[in-house]
Each structure stands twice: as structure tokens, then as C-alpha cells.
Amino acid sequence: MAHPGEPHHDDLAGRLNWLRAGVLGANDGIVSTAGLVVGVAGATTDRTAILAAGVAGLVAGSLSMAGGEYVSVSTQRDTEQAALDKERRELRDMPAEEERELAGIYQEQGLSAELAAQVAAELTEKDAFRAHAQAELQIDPDNLTSPWQAAWASLVSFALGALVPVVAITAPPTSWRVWTCVVSVLLGLVATGLVSARLGGGEPRRAVARNVLMGATTMVVTYYIGVLFGVTVG
Ligand SMILES: [Zn+2]
């Protein structure tokens, strides 16, 4: 029995999954766009060129993340749908075997044979399809992940993350722009590192250090590539 006010376990797990995906998306947006704009800023002081690269990176990255998420969740959903269809057919064609199968699952989980049979009978009476989906496939048939929702969440979280380096590098005057961007990006990565460590239950200091180091390395590498291009091309 749930305590009053305590969210249903699946809801909480679902929300945490969304939040985790959102933080990862934002982190991706920050790092990849920071690498891009810092690289361009290494090659040129032209604000319009830097802004154009940043906005293009933001849009391309958000769409690519959303597309990837859409495809992956659609595939997962097709698989789940096929399993549910098969279950529905089996329930129609051989209901007695299916009820025995359900009882077998509860018995494996620790119920006595009589109690398992009673549970299976009562759940079959109430909603056989749902009982089988949950016990056999661990799928809640009313709560399949929506590919559009997942795509939208990736798009928004990547774009929000990408805004940090785009704004930080185009807003300040030329001589400050790279350092402003580096500091803002590293602060952003401290935040996403902290939140994901909190969500994953990991050790926050190490997670933050890893995240910041990865972002800093990305910017150093792309900046010097930009500088090389600026010297040879410009
Ligand atoms: Zn079944």
C-alpha cells in the first residue's frame, strides 16, 4: 500500500528517466556547441560568422538529437506493440494455458500454488491483458513511451544547453568573448554534472570533475584547430 502523497513508483521512475535524459541532452548541447563556437572564434573575430556557426550548430544538433530519439523510441515501441499483439492473440486463442502461465509466474515470484492460481484467476477476471502485459512483458500497456514526446524533450534540452555557449560567445566584446564562453560553459557543466550525479546517486565531485574536464578538453582542441585555420586560411 502506498503512503498517502507518495507518487506511484512507476511514475517516479518515469519522471526521473525524463529528467536524466533532459540533463544529458543539455550537457550534449553545451559541449558540442561550445566546441563549435570556440573553434570558429579561434579562426575569426567576425561576430556574425561566430553567431551563424553557433545557431547552425544549435539547430542541427537539436534536430539530429530529436531525430535519433524519435527513431530509437519508435523502434522500441514497435517491439513492445508486437509483443502486446502476440499476447492479445494468445489470450484469445488459448485462455486456459495463459491463465496457467500467469499463475506460474506468480508462483515463481514466491506465492504458493493455490494463492498463485487464485491471483491469476482474479486478475484474469478483471483485466487479463493488462495482467499479462505487466507480469510477462513488464509493459504498462497504457503508458508506452511516445516517440514524439521523447523527440521533443531531446530537442528542447539540447537547444537550452546550446544557448549557453552561443549567448556567452556572441554577447561580450571581442577580447572577452572566448573567456566568457569558457567560464559560462564550465559553470554549466558543473550544474549538469551535479544534477546527473544527484539523479544517478553517484559521487558528485568526481562526476563534476569528469564533466568539466571533458568540456574543457573539447574547447581547447577546437580552439587550436580554429587558430590553425585562421593562420593558414585567413
Ligand atoms: Zn501470457
UniProtKB/TrEMBL annotation:
Superkingdom of this protein's organism: Bacteria
Subcellular location(s) of the protein: Endomembrane system
Keyword check for Membrane: yes
Pfam families referenced in this protein's UniProt entry, alphabetically: VIT1
GO annotation, cellular component aspect: endomembrane system
KW Cytoplasm (keyword) present: no
A molecular function (GO) term: manganese ion transmembrane transporter activity
Name recorded for this polypeptide: VIT family protein
